[in-house]
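This part of the workshop introduces the protein records we will be handling. The question running through the whole workshop is how a given chain folds. To make this concrete, we reproduce a full record directly below:
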Amino acid sequence: MTNIATFQQLKQEVAEWRRYLHQNPELDYRLHNTARFVAEKLASFGINHIEQGIAETGIVALIQGQGGDGPTIGLRADMDALPIVEASGKPWSSTVHGQMHACGHDGHTAMLLGAAKYLAATRTFKGTVALIFQPAEEVELPSGGLKMVQEGIMDRFGISQVYGMHIEPGMDIGKFGIRFGAVMGSQDDFDIVIKGKGGHAASPQETVDPVTIAAQVILGLQTLISRKTDPLDSLVLSVTKLNAAQAYNIIPDQVEISGTVRTLKSSLQDFAEREIPKIAEGIALGFGAEIGFKYLRSVPVTYNHSEETMHAVAAAQSLVGPSAVDEAVKIQMGAEDFSYMLQARPGSFIFVGNGPTPACHNPAFDFDDEALPYGIGYWVKLVETVLGR
């Protein structure tokens, strides 16, 4: 019977892989060195079925169990870094200026490689494990998760269930968090162009000032949440970009506003797409301006399916015990493109503790290598749970 001590034995080697990936981050789909590293490791484990170039630099590798026929389950890790200047101060800090693994994807990749090494050596399961190494989780559409699904990996490899994992700063190492149903929010993005009449800043009466109109629109949009939605519903609307004139003495012809919408319900996505332009247009018309509007459905809700989430809970509990698994972890309104895989196949997404580190996307963030055995162990326990003889 496997226990956490089994996977502690892999920690030093897997930590070396993780730190190499951390020192050599790559962005979006341009993961040529990362993909090469992953493929070489998989081959060294004796895995013969390795397919590269999926969604440009993605990889799917298959491990057949020795227990006979059975289903194929997918285990997914994302591989890309972020365009951030690292400030962690660690000896293995990024060697590429302006790029770093600030969201733990180096750890995700290393943990799945560690599980792959163990599973390839033991193969004490029936059916097949599909190891999914995904590029471009951190990009706008089309993201790597969407492209891998569009390129048919579920049908091509016969995947019937799919599972994902993400580290969680602030959660103790050795603990897991999961919940049934929606676990992370959707992401939609919008652009509003306010078209006024520019002129000299000393003569505002001769203009239709889109800057002051933009200020009113930004404040007005918040009433969609405070006055037009149920307080018990989850809706986040944040304006994150504002582009106007670049000089002190110019009132511009137009101002561009952009932002993001996060929800847990498709009906609220419909609401936001319908009501945002109404608010913006009403305010703009009152001042004699016009608007242009675009709304992009970016990433759907990450939704954990019931049966597969029961498997995930059982796997985590068998590794660390029931008290270390939170089955009602707080919903996060951040988005995760693993949601596309969960739309294509039933599955579940779990969080693994990373200790008291800085938050993800922070320049000081670093994956804690003490978490590695728990991620590796979870993957192995999940395979034993779903594909056990």
